[in-house]
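Bench log. Compound arrived from synthesis this morning; before running ITC I wanted a structural hypothesis for how pantoate sits in the protein. Inputs:
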Amino acid sequence: MKELKVFTTVKEMQAYAAAQHAAGKTIGLCPTMGALHEGHMTLMRAARKACDVVIASVFVNPVQFGPNEDYDKYPRQFPADCEKLQAEGVDAVFHPEPQEMYPEGYGTYITVENGITDVLCGARRPGHFRGVATVVTKLMNITRADKAFFGQKDAQQVAVVRRFVADLNLPVEVNMVPICREESGLARSSRNAYMSAEEKKAALVLSRSLRAARAAYEQGECRAEVLKKVTADELAKEPLAKIDYVDLYTYPALQATDNVTEPCLLAIAVYIGKTRLIDNIILG
Ligand code: PAF
């Protein structure tokens, strides 16, 4: 089995990436914050299919967490992550320290200002997408990515990345990989590790509520208000669930709409105990 290369400095990572391009190879980037699970592996596999060289990044990006969020307790398990990446045949992993990415004097941030960061998680987590856009731009530059791979679970993040990649003329193809679910229906997430067995069972209500909405849509229901109500009513049946939002917007423009007449994102954020989970489906 080929060995996974580990880079912790920007200089080394860029030199490796430049050498791959010089050898005529294409680079696929899978940005992650680590605590890798099967969902991340679906990104690696998509990148492997589409590119000669696969680079994963493992970096818990401080700039995308709010002051009362879980930056400190976010699971960090780099040795186990490396084992998974190696077993998957990933070529290299970029794992910098925060000071390497944001050295003293750092002062440049990317903000997407066309409204798509004002809704859903953008509205609840001020500054979150500014942090994501900044780090993803840096990661694309550092790894010289030709293609980048993101999961649909963070569908708003994918819309934001597509927007700034187009706006800044970055030469990177952005790919969205379908949500990876456990057999139970629960969308895989590093944050699932925060939940007790009882909470994990309660969390199945997220995918159940979205399935109920999809069933209603497939039976001809197109009204956004009704589809949101079907979802919220199902969520309300679970006593451990506290709704943060249930919303429906056109996708990827994330414009409000009364009816599903074009692709639309039905997205939910729900607290199960102290754990905030997100999930979504695309209708239309
Ligand atoms: O989706 C994530 O894990 C993060 O937001 C990302 C894209 C790795 C940026 O830190």
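What the model suggests: The mean pLDDT is 98. The pocket of pantoate is lined by residues 31-33, 61, 64, 132, 135-136, 154, 157 (CB under 6 Å).
ITC booked for Thursday regardless.
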